[in-house]
Recover the amino acids of this structure.
């Protein structure tokens, strides 16, 4: 396990030595004004990113061969430059396998992934519609899909942007849908849950998360909506006798789940289940983003009277932590 | 009880005689091309509106004194003109008190109002925050408010546009909120439910529903958001020691519940409870509008393959009744 | 061949008898004010639509058994009601097979379809990229696709809204693309032409054109963009060794060809060929709409000084026929 | 009185010593790369802000105890870093009471406040409607309101953003309204002036201006429109027999004065006085912003041929000083 | 003078005979269902428009030769059809010259045109800038311009849509500008008044008002902004030594006076005079539209409690007549 | 010819000496922290801009007299500061006439200007409409216009932003128009080409390009559309017997060529030639911007898998170089 995380360095004394395992997100060769070569690195772990400078790349304590994507162990000190932290790297070597958990290097869900996965399969198991149950069972039994589903983040930045975040978001949404369903008897439970389980399935191909979170070129040109529809349609077409009307409805739910044309859904929700899906998905993403901002404020030591930073997922609005503000008001 | 409702006339043979109790929504004196005076009426009941023509206003079987707002009993026959129904009125007299239930003349909730009211008070009773509990108890104990709350429609046209519709909508939302709350521990239950209970309280003054549903001039110039905030603020100010921060939050929830400036909220939701309220309110309104459209299609005998009409609350989108369409696909 | 077309009736004397073959687009039973049953019909041919009234449905000269979708021969006279034409139908019988050409009943391209088809295949034949050539050859060799491609209209109303209109539009666009290509050497000709040939392929499933032009339920819920992508992807996946990058680009062109998210493209054009396709497609549709409006003005006898009606495809703008206006100015 | 203002430093030689009184807007402890602690300050006066660095915080000439909100006397020199000015602080002590005028530390109106206040009361005195006169007299007689009214800035940044700016803006608007009124006899003078006097009254609670200009949390969650409506409604409700219709109109004017929903007015102007108010308020704010930009250009020594910087209140447009440009053209 | 105006007919008994002079705005030959020819006319006078039907065109009392644009005297009776008035024309002859004042046939200003013109010249006379004075004097001395300026309406429909309306609007704006100028010393009076006097000068060519108010083809393709700039530029270029900078500013004011790109101004106001012009022009147009709506409500007998119809110039908003509503509240 | 261009310095070793000719785009006097005066320069050539620092302005090797707009020869070394390049200038003298080609100092077309000009005249020569031919011949024969036309850039930044860029863009558009014309017989070739040749003619006055590319004040206040219309109208008015309708159409094409009001066209295209012009102009600008971005990526050594930077002319979209990406995929 890592001892020091990038987020910890904010409160670190400048100049004090420390060791840490990091993922190399970028590596560039440069020269100083006095024409001396040095290395500029972007180092990352699950708590953030940090610029690193190797002023003496020929020092024998600096490994010669390491590349973008490698995990390294660095020793050095932090300094602050124009309010950004920078690490002066004195020693650097590639990490041994198993010396560090990859989950420490990219942000990851704090939930237990096997438990989440079991919960998700439990929802499928509760289906009464045999066609939809077979569809989900088939897709989730595909090793490539199920492996990626457990790892994928649902976004590069906005909400649940961490390893396992997609799984966490979907299980949260299934639970939410099951709570909301009794209020609206016109909703078909199996169809709504199918939409929840598959709406972001294209993310497993849209994003790559080996070295940081990036969109693949295919993801950029086609998008996770199209990729998810294609994946689902292929599976459906491989099942004998899947009802064609049901196929249309399942694909429509994936296509329309962003709820608005300008958010990249080529069709607006035209069935009640699709409308409910787009609302619940949006609500869950926003509530998670708010929770994330509140946690960040606490980490950064902001007072109860201060608003959060501008929240991207809420159109750059700032929020107030109700419970903290009320709590303080009582004292 | 009424025997014949306006909605029934759609399938009525032209020319066949019938009797009915109606509310007079408008009354105008006119003359025919041949210079003969006649009366043009708009008649309404809980199922719709109908134009009525009294071609012989001097006939002794036509009451002389009746006005807009009166309940009348008419005898006559229906005819179709350019696809709109019209009633030729042969006899007309003012109804006796108790001859007809006013609830038959304006559309009204199909739920039992005392039961709904009890459910609503039950939510207040479950509060743990004493200040919010006192606020709600005080407001709902005001006879003027509690009487109007039980009758008011929450809109002139869009969703729940019927007597008791506000109460029905609020109870539905309380239930929904209680179902959603376990998913988001950051939400303060009492504050969220307070928002649900008070968000549309200004409707009791914005709309009048004596004769059809109309906006009052005050309602038009100030709006139910401002009226609801004022009503709430007055009550709070009458309570000794209501915490000022809590007052700010309660008012903010009413102010921001439309969720967007262009929908008439002068402030966007800036606390998690306000965000959740705007989502759930919007979802509930839309789901009710969809259910209403599906019911209307059934009444009108549309086939399972036909989309609904354009739904105002969904930006004029047309919807498909999933369950009917799938059901038919199976046969 | 038909003798009289609906468009001809505009200049017809009211009351004068005529015969005509029409497609029955709708049929409803109604009763008059005096309680007499009659039939209300919507009759169509390739030049327009007309309301028909059968006042004596029990007349032996009126066929008992005919339905929506049947072709009938009617005898009757036209009358004008509030500026709309109406036909009083005196006689009506179902048409014999071959008595009338279906092409006379739905608007159809004025070009020779086999010639257009040959031109289209000629473009495919000129490809130098073997993968794209094989893809197109395979798709166009599928009898279901090629038959539909030759018949489909590309829109219900806007532009080229006639049988064979899709084929006409695509051949026109291929020719245009070939003319523009020398100006921009950065464009890959085969990829651009592939986009032209496939961008609207989903229309063969989005629309039905048996009885008038209608959207299918599947078309309404999924849209021709998604349907075209799916059709293309299935064919590509059936070809061994189709390059995966090329697949991404072909699908991207179909996905993005509407050029804007709010026009239903879930992705904006991100390669030069996709950008060019969206421009040329839009230009061709608009130029055709203008030509259609100019033709209509001539048919309706408008003077050279009058603007056209409001053109839907040009945001309700009105246009001026330059050549006519200048020509008249010279006299 | 202060000798040196922050705005003067732009033309100051780097390194030259100077003394000055400043308000401490922020104070942070930091360390240099070589691990030496220093203080980073934000210093302000009525002409602007300046970053200050105390490199030797333990120097006996540097006061130990001073906080955000204190007024201090600093000695040091200016330097330019990446085009921003920075002050190197050599000596620092807390200012004695009365050593400096607070009006020198926050930007303030250049008009005489008692004179402005008298002008404002003069407008009230000229009312002929006794109810409106009583309303205004009552509100302005409230010491808390009248004191704040004389100090409040009407905005944090945009226009009249200085102490007394609200009063200055309102007197300017009253004068303007009185000039415009003869052009539109349909306008009720007393009602329009009431709107002018009260439209921004909520600002006295929305903003705090003790230490710089900031929004209060209540102001952020409720906004000055709601706060002004509440303040006015409370006063009206305390007056016996204030006409209810007049109350509705006064509140409507405050509610609608931003003129557009997207600017935070929950209602659009629906009476002529409200429309006129929204126009004149907007015009006055923009003209003041332009005057402010022209003054800034002169201070910064820009030539007559240069446009101003981008003006926030005019959608980032740049403006030309007509008179200067024409004047120069004549030479 | 005319005895009966179209607006009077609203309260007219159906069937009662009357005579009137009207302008023929349209004339069409049609046939009845029974194949009988009749004439359909659009008749207009300064108070509105009316459909006329000549059922017996061969009646000797109906003139044979009259065309669109002729003034006729009609005798007949009014009838109401689906709430629109229609005139049954029994007799019709062309009017004698001088039998009717053309000002009675198109809506016209109620002010005295020579007086307005004198006021306008008075403003020019008060200029101190000799170049601007010469420019205005020259333009207004051109007989074609000065004649048209006195007649032109400034719009086809929206505001001041009557003969002499442009002149009335400009004089009103000059007066308003002179009232506002003392509030903003940064404004150059002569330049602002020049903008007021010339901003709509292009209307004299954009519209034709011989037979109703219509846009010319040139007006439709170029617009009054461009036409006004061209007219002004030609005059300026004909004056020796007009300062080039002043020319730029004058043209900029005309170009930018609509205040927004989407309203057809190709440039936004970038000088204070242009900004003031766009505000005052907009305010004056809206206040006049409101006054017009209030007058219409009085004419139509609407009660003080009713809102106006939807006002085009105010984005379809409805307004309340403050003074009437307050007045009624007092009784 | 210059030896070293600013773009070359990106790969230059820090500290290494070099010589170069540059245009002085800005010159400022400053002082260091230690109160030493130095000069800050912005130097430019056709490949970019560079900040220069003269730390010893009194060094005899530094010229005393040089100003903004001068061409200088500098000797010094490059250094990198926070990723921006800076030049330390050791020697500086004004360049001799003819020592450097001005075309090396501002970006310029890579085509041969006399050849482009000849092509442009060839298009005019091919006109069959004598009026349009005379118009163009007259305008292009004006030495001021023809000289500026050959030099002007069509934009400060977006597309073809280089000397001769306007000419290059227009010739490219003429060629494109000629290719597209056979597809749309309704287009008048001479009118369309006239629009192409004149649409941006106002740029010769809107921009100045002596020292960098800047908008003139007149250009900023009036815009190239208005300036181009005025220039064209003056020429037309000087020609005897130019048909007035043709004049209207030519001016309309210039006015409407931006295609949207919000892009500064005061009229939307209302004739087919204007619509075609706005499409082709937009397509050509975008294709050139894409080509420019692809070239830049190659220069900067980006891999085939990387998207371009955000392209201003394409709403900040990033693009993929199809041919490179496919090419790499094949290896």
């Amino acid at each position: 396990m890592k001892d020091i995380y990038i987020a910890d360095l904010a409160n670190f004394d400048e100049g004090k030595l420390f060791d840490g395992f990091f993922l190399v997100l970028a590596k560039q060769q440069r020269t100083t004004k006095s024409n001396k070569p040095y290395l500029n690195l972007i180092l990352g772990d699950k708590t953030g990113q940090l610029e690193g400078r190797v002023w003496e790349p020929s020092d024998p304590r600096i490994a010669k061969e390491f590349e973008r994507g490698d995990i390294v162990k660095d020793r050095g000190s932090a300094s602050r430059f124009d309010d950004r932290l920078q690490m002066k790297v004195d020693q650097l070597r590639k990490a041994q396998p198993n010396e560090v958990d990859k989950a420490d290097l990219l942000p990851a869900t704090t939930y237990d992934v096997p438990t989440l996965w079991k919960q998700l399969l439990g929802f499928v198991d509760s289906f009464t519609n045999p066609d939809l149950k077979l569809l989900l069972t088939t897709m989730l039994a595909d090793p490539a899909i199920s492996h990626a589903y457990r790892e994928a983040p649902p976004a590069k930045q906005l909400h649940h942007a961490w390893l396992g975040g997609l799984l966490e978001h979907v299980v949260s949404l299934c639970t939410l849908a099951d709570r909301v369903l009794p209020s609206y008897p016109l909703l078909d439970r199996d169809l709504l849950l199918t939409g929840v389980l598959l709406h972001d399935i294209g993310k497993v191909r849209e994003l790559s998360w080996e070295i940081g979170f990036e969109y693949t070129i295919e993801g950029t040109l086609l998008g996770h909506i199209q990729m998810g529809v294609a994946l689902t349609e292929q599976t459906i077409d491989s099942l004998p006798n899947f009802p064609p009307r049901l196929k249309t409805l399942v694909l429509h739910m994936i296509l329309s789940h962003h709820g608005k044309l300008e958010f990249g859904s080529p069709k607006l929700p035209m069935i009640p289940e699709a409308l409910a899906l787009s609302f619940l998905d949006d609500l869950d993403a926003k509530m998670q983003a708010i929770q994330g901002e509140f946690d960040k404020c606490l980490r950064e030591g902001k007072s109860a009277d201060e608003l959060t930073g501008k929240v991207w997922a809420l159109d750059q609005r700032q929020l107030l932590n109700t419970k903290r503000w009320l709590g303080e008001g009582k004292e």
About this structure: Chain A touches chain D at residues 13-16, 79-81, 305, 307, 320, 325 (CB under 8 Å). The mean pLDDT of chain A is 88.
